[in-house]
Each structure stands twice: as structure tokens, then as C-alpha cells.
Amino acid sequence: MNDKKKLARNQKDTNDDMINLVDNLNRDEDLKYNRRSFLKTAVGTSVALSVATIPFSVKAMLGMETDYNRVEIAKLEDIPEGDSVVFNYPNDNDPAILIHTVNGDLKAYNSACTHLMCPVFYEKTQDVLLCPCHKGYFDVSNGQPISGPPQRELPLIEIEVDNGIVYAVGRQYRHG
Q: Of 70, 143, 149, 162, which is most buried, counting CB atoms within 10 Å of its CB?
């Protein structure tokens, strides 16, 4: 490349292809959309999202649950020991199971497995709750996982028996 051609490259309105590739760059836009402004925007967005979730975090830390309705599940005489009844609580989209254990205790849990939400069944012979999808087992006395892939316990449905009728009165998430 001769000196005359080199000089021509440094002129603004040259026909040299390498010079024309950078003609579309605008220095003002480069200063407006730079790394520093991107970081400022990212930090500002993170702070805004953090502040927006504070009410939910406080509610979870205090363990505030919504008020649940008292819902009739079944008559106690209709559930022999070693049997279970499926119901929905607190709304129609939340499947639950009431178990009258072989020991005579009444226990109720949400019946969606905490692994992949498959329905959980009462296995009378072993006195456990079984998730047949991946062979997850839960202790029927406390809803804790015994074996298999589930890592969290089943949400507990609070029940009460009044005049021979079993009612669901609340739900507890015990795993934060």
C-alpha cells in the first residue's frame, strides 16, 4: 500500500471499504449504551425486584396462612381403620387424602407428591403413603419422605372431628 492510499483511508468521505464499515457508528449512542449504564440498569432492576418481594417474605417468615374454610370430608363411621378417603382442600384444585391408619389415627395430607406432583396413595399393608410414579414413600404419621426421590414432606391438612364427622380446617406448609 502506498502512502497516497494510506492518506485516503483517513479521510472521512473515502470509498475505502474498511472506513465505510465504521461510518454507521455513532459515538453519542456508544456513550449512552455502554457497560456502565447496563450495570446501573441491572442493579436498579435487582433492587426494585427485591423491594417488591418484601411483603411476601415477611408473610412467609411470620408463618401467616390464609384463613381456611371448614370443609366436611366424611363421616368417621364410613372410614374403617386401614382405609382412606380422597377429597380436595382448600379448593377443588388441591387433592388431599384422609387416612384412618391401622392404628386408629386420623391423618390428612395434600396428596400431590412433593417430587413431581403425582397422586399419593395409602398403602395399608406397609402403613405408608406411596407415590407410584417414582416409588416415593412417605411416613403416614408425619408426612416426611422415607425413601425415593421426594425431598420434602407432604403439606399437612389440619382436621377435627365433630359429632362423628371429620372436617378439614387448615393446612400447614412445614418446609418453608
A: 143
